[in-house]
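Reviewer 2 asked us to include a model.

Predict the structure of this chain.
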Amino acid sequence: MVCLRGGGVAAVVLVMVFGVGGCKGESLGSAGPEESASGAAGGGGGGGGAALAAVDSLTVKGRAPKTGYARDRFGTAWADTDSNKCDTRDDILKRDLVDVRFRSGGCKVSAGKLDPDPYSGKDVAFTRGRSEVDIDHIVALSDAWQKGAKYWDASKRIALANDPLNLRAVDASTNRSKGDGDTATWLPPNKAYRCTYVANQVAVKKKYELWVTEAEKTAMKKVLSGCDGQKLPAGGNPTEAPARFHAS
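Predicted model (structure tokens):
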């Protein structure tokens, strides 16, 4: 089965919920990011928009120690927190790839392509079992741990780790240069994507009430001040995972 971005069902709206079937938007599931209407483009050439304005709503504090951080503090990787019977990784692959093919049914993505990869700007082929494509946490889990998540209950950490608002399919080699960097320490090499990337980090930190460092806030403002009318993404999943999910 093949589902093409830009054709049929997938073209109905910009961002659809994930489906349990083959094509995006066939039935209810995880909502992807939506852009806030309050940041309409065309802000007069001075940069800014809803995303820049939102930076000032973020709490500024120093980075806490990484002590105690482990991936399993955010639950089992790619938990099906939206209960659509597909794991989070496959949901994001279905949302972000084009020419998607499935191993069986409408969940397990076997092949597809980033056209283009937002981080590098190049086309990247995905084949299941190879490592050309990663699912990136836009706000890295380690970064979140050091900026508030350490003090959350497990339900909120699991929600962050599986929230489509915080996830993007990207080129693996480019993503691995990021590590747990924030806006002050890492930006995508593809400059055309930086406005969207930083706006997404702001949106996630605002939604989950994560703080930022002074250097991070400065870097966010520097990027977004050059992004005329940049909207603030919204949507995704609730900030609490269903009670059946657990983390250490």
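The mean pLDDT is 86. The beta strands are 2-3, 33-35, 98-102, 109-114, 124-127, 133-137, 167-171, 233-235. We have added this to the supplementary material.
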